[in-house]
Specification:
- The chain is mainly α.
- It has one domain.
- The protein has 8 helices and 3 strands, in the order αααββαβαααα.
- It has a 3-stranded antiparallel sheet with strand order 1-2-3.
- The chain is globular and about 55 Å long.
- InterPro entries: YaaC-like (IPR026988).
- This is YaaC-like Protein.
């Protein structure tokens, strides 16, 4: 059985008329005034985010591992932004929401281990915004999480109070995209020469995330759509 995500599942979210109707109903349910006007203004942006996400993920499936983190991170970011539009017609309401909302260590140590690497949640940006609007998780500022922490959360399917799986995928993909961009020598050795166990862990995660993340976002949208 193929594990490549079937983007035909997103076809209902490519119809401008259906998305206008969906957004209007959702904004009304969330008590935004002028819901129909907002839906008219935002439906095109929603659809473009879905289309861009599909392009990034399809390109990732056809690309070598060395650039997959970049493509998947931007693909997931577009899917998340589409979801945010369904919850806030004003998103993004300020420039601070356009940042990633998470940071990573800039320079890796000589004995670097991917599992021990960490990311730190920032006060503003895409990650805290998605955490708040989509999953009602607040007060994450300055929280530091290791890649091992995040992978274990995914393996355990999370417990009450833990991060949602989509949040975990976002953070891991963010860190991998930063490594692919700025840690060129280490990343090249990892993906080309496969010198450590990091390669198998990273390759397995990228394979999983390439179909899990789009499906999880689709289920989130379908659940929202069923409420309107």
């Amino acid at each position: 059985m193929s594990t490549i995500f079937n983007w035909n599942r997103y076809l209902p979210y490519y119809s401008r008329s259906e998305i206008r109707h969906f957004l209007s109903k959702e904004y009304t349910r969330l008590n935004y005034p002028h819901a129909e006007k907002h839906a008219q203004q935002r439906h095109t942006s929603f659809c473009y985010h879905i289309e861009h996400a599909e392009a990034f993920y399809i390109q990732s499936n056809e690309s070598p591992t060395i650039i997959q983190p970049l493509l998947q991170f931007y693909g997931l970011s577009h899917l998340v932004k589409a979801c945010l539009i369904t919850k806030d017609p004003y998103y993004p309401s300020n420039t601070s929401q356009l940042a990633h909302g998470v940071s990573s260590r800039k320079k890796k140590k000589s004995n670097y281990s991917f599992l021990e690497d960490t990311v730190k949640i920032q006060k503003n940006g895409l990650f805290p915004t998605l955490s708040s609007l989509l999953f009602h998780v607040e007060h994450l500022e300055n929280l530091t999480l290791s890649m091992q922490d995040l992978l274990l959360l995914l393996e355990d399917n999370g417990q009450e109070g833990d991060l949602n799986a989509i949040q975990c995928h976002f953070l891991i993909l963010y860190n991998l995209s930063m490594i692919a961009r700025y840690e060129t020598e280490w990343w090249g050795n990892c993906t080309m020469y496969k010198e450590t166990e990091d390669y198998s862990i990273i390759r397995s995660f990228l394979h999983l995330s390439s179909h899990y993340a789009p499906q999880a976002i689709l289920e989130y949208l379908n659940d929202s759509n069923s409420k309107v």
